[in-house]
């Protein structure tokens, strides 16, 4: 008896196509809207508070009339007759000690007729020269300056030169008795006299 015939080969199974999970024709989800981050400026630090300016507790020693031992009234801090500063004036609203300073006092030094510049004397030229100079705590005159000319440069120069060379002072003091610089302002009058150059010359009028 013949064996049975084998069954015919089966047809290969058909693969189903994978379906797109997205529905056909459906709208895409909305995009997210980008928002910028907020920028905040850092806080500004307040400016530093400047330190207070401390005033000097006592009047200083100076060469000017406002800070030296001036003999006139004024609002400065020196030893004037009256003032509103903190110094040693006779009267004041400050906190300094009440007292009276002294002004520089001339003790030696003169300008004579024989000191008259010869060229100016021969020409009969005279005049008045106004000067300003400093009396140091050592009593010497220095830094002489002409504030108003006599009109003759030679007379102006001789006047200052003789002042610095000859004039000596008892220096001024403040209320505490300390020697201070003082400023002197004065005028010197030059006039040719008949006995010019003779014996016994007198100092010209100042």
From TrEMBL:
UniProt keyword Membrane present: yes
Protein topology in the membrane: Single-pass membrane protein
GO cellular component: membrane
Keywords assigned by UniProt, alphabetized: Membrane, Transmembrane, Transmembrane helix
GO terms for biological process, alphabetical: transmembrane transport
Start and end residues of each stretch annotated as Disordered: 1-47, 62-101
Gly residues composition bias: residue spans: 75-99
InterPro entries referenced in this protein's UniProt entry, alphabetically: TonB/TolA_C (IPR006260), TonB_C (IPR037682)
Major localization class: membrane
Biased composition range(s): Pro residues: 1-11
Location of the TonB C-terminal domain: 101-193
Cellular localization per UniProt: Membrane
NCBIfam families, per database record: tonB_Cterm (TIGR01352)
Protein name in the entry: Energy transducer TonB
């Amino acid at each position: 008896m013949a064996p049975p015939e084998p069954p015919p080969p089966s047809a290969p199974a058909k693969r189903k196509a994978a379906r797109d999970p997205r529905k056909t024709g459906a709208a895409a989800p909305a995009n997210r809207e980008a928002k910028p981050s907020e920028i905040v400026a850092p806080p500004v630090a307040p400016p530093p508070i400047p330190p207070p300016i401390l005033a000097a507790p006592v009047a200083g020693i100076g060469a000017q009339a406002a800070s030296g031992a001036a003999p006139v009234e004024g609002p400065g801090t020196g030893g004037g007759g009256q003032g509103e500063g903190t110094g040693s004036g006779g009267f004041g609203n400050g906190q300094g000690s009440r007292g009276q300073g002294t002004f520089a006092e001339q003790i030696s030094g003169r300008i004579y007729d024989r000191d008259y510049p010869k060229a100016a004397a021969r020409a009969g030229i005279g005049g008045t020269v106004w000067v300003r100079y400093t009396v140091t705590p050592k009593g010497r005159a220095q830094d002489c300056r002409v504030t108003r000319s006599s009109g003759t440069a030679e007379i102006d120069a001789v006047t200052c030169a003789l002042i610095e060379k000859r004039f000596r002072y008892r220096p001024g003091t403040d209320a505490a008795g300390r020697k201070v610089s003082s400023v002197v302002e004065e005028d010197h009058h030059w006039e040719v006299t008949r006995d010019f150059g003779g014996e016994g010359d007198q100092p010209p009028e100042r």
